[in-house]
Amino acid sequence: MDPASLRTADLDHLLSTWPASRNTRDGLVLSMLALMTLTEMVKGKTVRFKFYKDGDLWYETEDGFEFPVPIHDTGTGIFRAEDKAVGYMRWIRKHLAERAQWEKERLAHARNVPGHSK
Questions:
Q1: Regarding predicted confidence, which is higher, 56 or 40?
Q2: Predicted pLDDT of residue 76
Q3: Max CA distance (Å), the chain
Q4: Residue 53: inside a domain, yes or no?
Q5: Where are the alpha helices (DSSP H) in 19-88?
Q6: Looking at the domain assignment, is residue 118 inside a domain?
Q7: How far is CA 4 from each of CA 20, 96, 98, rounded to the nearest angstrom?
């Protein structure tokens, strides 16, 4: 499944499987992203630099989605504190795909846990 093409049916599934112990903000961000395409996340919007950690520049979209930009992948580029989101699509797309894979693995693991109802 392409994470950028998630729609309402996918949102219903994600919300029904979302653990109550997760951070509410993260759940809300995931819910919002499930209704948006990648283009909707970046078109006419900006990203803001949040922090640097372990070789990654972390940015946040206007919609609250945080994603890393690996330093080794920056070349001679200029990375501003605030910039047009469209220029960061490749890293946003990559992180959306990673998060979708993590969720798929989490659900697969949850099915293998004794006593788990899903």
A1: 56
A2: 93
A3: 52
A4: yes
A5: 24-34, 38-42
A6: no
A7: 24, 7, 12
Q: What is the DSSP string of 74-97?
A: -TT----SEEEGGGGHHHHHHHHH
Q: Which residue has the tokens 């919002």?
A: 32
| Containing structural domain, residue 85 | 3-111
Beta-bridge mates of residue 66: 60
Question: 33 with 5: CB under 8 angstroms?
Answer: no
What are the residues facing 57 on neighbouring strands?
52, 69
The pLDDT of residue 51 is above 50: yes
Q: Is residue 73 part of a domain?
A: yes
**pLDDT bucket at 35, cuts 50 / 70 / 90:** low
Task: Indicate whether 116 belongs to any domain.
Answer: no
Confidence of residue 2 (pLDDT cuts 50, 70, 90): very low
Opening angle at CA 18, ends 15 and 20, nearest 5: 115
Name the pTM for this structure. 0.65
Give 3-state DSSP helix, strand, coil % of the chain, rounded to 5: 50, 20, 30
From 32, 35, 34, 95, select the one nearest 62 (Cα to Cα): 32
Number of domain units in the chain: 1
